[in-house]
Amino acid sequence: MSRDAARLRRRVEAVTNLLDPGNSIEHERARGLLTDLFERHDHPSTFHALRSAATAGLDVQTLEAMIELKELWAMRSEWWYRRSRDQVVEMERGPNALSWKLARRVCLARWQYPPESMIDDEWFEEWLGLPPRAPGHHDFVAFVREKIEGRASHDLCAGLRFLDNAPEPVPDPDRCPLHPLQRDVAMDALAGVRAVLVD
Q1: pLDDT tens for each residue of 70-123
Q2: 19, 34, 38, 129: least CB-packed within 10 angstroms?
Q3: In this model, does residue 153 exceed pLDDT 60?
Q4: Which DSSP symbol is given to 95?
């Protein structure tokens, strides 16, 4: 086995072994996802970021969504913008502006959406209309972070916790899922919101 192949295998196993417990089929799927990813992106920073994400808490489904979301971001050049004085200009490192850490947070917060809908297309227009000094004003990726972690997200999460009588989440968002609710409870809450909006 070559040195590169051995390094690839070590990286894949290091991350796979940290994933939340799952069955053997899921872990084999994770190995396939990680092997493909590390072959295409062999920079150590990718490995370190995913190892950190797995240490913080990560299952195979979220890993797969993160990879898809990062790849989608890298194709959506219309999102790679920031403000410079009175202009909106393209970021120098736009394809990589969405970090693995933020991708994980987006996937945890928006798990009920497919990766292609986790970042709403309307958010960019909303960002363009932000007044100066508003949270997330500087660049679009900061606005995505604000949508996920900011006040509006906090209020929604607090409302869902109230409906479920759930305790306050652990304050460190990298040590546990952002929304510690059972999936069926969250879906019931969302159905109720939709019913109110329709009426």
Answers
A1: 999 999 999 999 999 889 999 989 999 999 999 999 999 999 999 999 999 999
A2: 129
A3: no
A4: G
Residue 110, token pair as written in the block:
């928006």
The residues, ordered by sequence, that sit 6+ positions from 144 with a Cβ below 8 Å of its Cβ are 98, 102, 106, 119, 123, 136
Which residue has 């796979």 as its token pair?
16
Residue 30: count other Cβ atoms within 10 Å of its Cβ. Answer: 23
Token representation of residue 184? 């069926």
- Rg over CA atoms, the chain: 18
Tokens coding 37: 């990813």
Residues with Cβ within 8 Å of residue 64, at least 6 apart in sequence = 29, 33
Quick one: CA dihedral 28, 50, 19, 16, positive or negative?
positive
